[in-house]
Amino acid sequence: MDCVSSSAFGCSGGKGRGGGGGGGGGRRRRRSRLYGVCLFFCLCFSAAVAGPATRPPPPVYASSPTKGDIDSSLYYPADASCLMAAIKTATTAILSQRQSRAATLLRLVFHDCMTKGGGCDASILKPAEINNPVNDGLSKVVDIITAVRKQAATQCGVLPTLADTIARAAAAAVSFSGLGDVVASGFKLGRRDVAPSQTGDNPATLPNENQPLDDILNSFASFGLSVQESTVWSIGGHSIGEAGCIHFTNRLNTSGGAGSCLPPVDPTLDPVLACKLAATCAAGAKGANFDFVTPKVLDVTYFQLLLKKQGLLKSDQAFAGNARTAAYIQLYANSPGQFAADFLAAYVKVSLFNINGPTTAPPTQYYFP
């Protein structure tokens, strides 16, 4: 509609009756005011018809992404930046109310990324994988991933992949627990999700506390982690969180029954701690904190506890007594800054394991909603 020439809004540009003379100025002022009102309504009407700004088409996804490398075709740069910040903000807000879930998110990314044959592809959310006994307890944070993803998508107008949401949310948990932001260490978004046709990975391929340390190190090495990286990642990751009694009672001597305090079966376990753990589990507790000094802070305390034979798991304590790893336990126990830098670097490396491989698929939805 040409509002300027529309007489329906009193916007006619022609002369009014009795033009000229003393009344002409008043009529001109009235016409000017009417013109201004008309223009205002015209602009509002045009904006309403036009609707929101037109969005560009979704990105053209790479036809053959490189396995192990970030797929930069998944997001426009500005959208990636928005999602990076939004996922962290949403995760931090949730953890401020549910602090214990920080450790679970860190475990979630570990179990998603380090199953052989898979990688950081969100396959951990597949029913066959998340419900496996090895992943017991991880279902407690599925609602967090769902909520964070929706909040980030609502804020940015773009739907992040589940794999990116998991990796970034767990990184936010690391920052929430006392370390820096992994973005400064090179963390980026660009992980495709596992294809819908896939059923998930086999959690039995994950390292476990009953394996000899050399086997655990070999497992980490198969993903490209050095002995030092394996040490900082494995022991540093146990700086927060807890383990169920079932994972360490084989180190204890419970033959005397409830209330007894006998030397532990495992000579590498501090006898005083062994008695406390036995009493804790006998009282009905489900588990115990790895780090009983600063259990909610990612720091070097657990390394220091290992030097006192106070590691919770036998496999953790083995790091302090093995010729290949003992020096690194000593290093990090006395170097908080070195630990922080190396742990964040290891996190970035782990978050790239086998990403965008042949079992993943490009997103089917970009914009949200």
From TrEMBL:
Annotated positions for site Transition state stabilizer: 107
Binding-site positions, heme b: 238
Substrates-to-products reaction catalysed: 2 a phenolic donor + H2O2 = 2 a phenolic radical donor + 2 H2O
Residues bound to Ca(2+) 2: 291, 294, 299
Active-site residues per Swiss-Prot or TrEMBL entry: 111 (proton acceptor)
Positions of the Plant heme peroxidase family profile domain: 69-355
Protein name: Peroxidase
The organism of origin for this protein: Chara braunii
